[in-house]
Amino acid sequence: MHSVRLKYLETIKDKSNVPIVNYRKIDWSEIEAFYENNDVEGLAQLLFEKSQGLKMVFVHACPRDESVNREYSFAGVYKSYKPIRGLSRMENMRQAAELLINKRFSTHAEYYYVRHQLAGNKEIDIILSNNIDDIWGYGTGYVDGNGNFLLQYYKSPLSMYTKEAYKYLENIKFVPSQDYLLKNIATALFDSRNCIGTDLDVEFVFTNQMKIYINELRPISFAHRKNWESFFFNAGQIKVPSAVRSCVIDSIGNVFGKAIVVNAERDDWVNIFASSNEYIFVVAAEDILLFLKIVNMYHGENIRLIIQYNNYIIDNHLQYIVYEDTGIEFVAKVINIPIQDGQMVGISSNGLNSTVEISIM
How many CA atoms lie within 13 A of 311 on its CB side? Predict the structure, then answer.
């Protein structure tokens, strides 16, 4: 058994003409002893040896448990390592090894397994991927069998520096032929989807010559697929610039309820979760994992959630964990809207943008 994303990468390499980044794979059997003995130096030496001939090596942890739990994406459960410029190859591999070993039983991973009642052994494969020399931008995309796709990407080195990400929703047949970059990205995504035979969540990079390279693929999880299918049914073709990271789509529809502002000092959770009132929980992005632990502790169900963004931007990994949580029914992201505890709040979301109406107390 190997991880799904490793199988998909191998399939693309063997059965399609879609360019992929140069990579090396390391099987769990080669690294198990390092993990069991917490041997960072031993794993670092193996990564160093295996990465010879690659430039600016990215180290990806690929969970094998995703092969037997296809309804979950496992995105964000284990972190990958991005090389640090100025460090030697060995220093980078040492930091990568430390990250890989420590994150196998990280807070994110432990929560994910407990929350979804997964019984896996946390075995992983490792992919060492080679960064392209003339990278111009990168992004992620969802794609389905009907040619629909949603991108979140950085168009240029400047947009990467300013963190100005863009979202683009479209069908491949409507992409303007003169937009070579968008056309090339859409074609690579759609060709990858046809090769694998299932809807995909794809990570890619591209050069200043607009050549696209795939560096990771995984199936769209059940939770994201639900919003994804509703999104196209309701929204059609939309082009939306957005600074919100990843292709995660908010819930779609309208909800109304009493605001519960989440903070570490609250001590009334028993009463809140025992109540039959219609609540909307308001959580600052930096406190979202705290709230998920509270939901798990009190067996919360059918949670409607507003995630507040201020200066903190929730990362891609944590977004996936939030949106796949079994207790959360509705989730929307807003930027810096002051909501007070006890106010009546209404949310309207089309999947990409949400509006909030607040009653006067």
Answer: 0
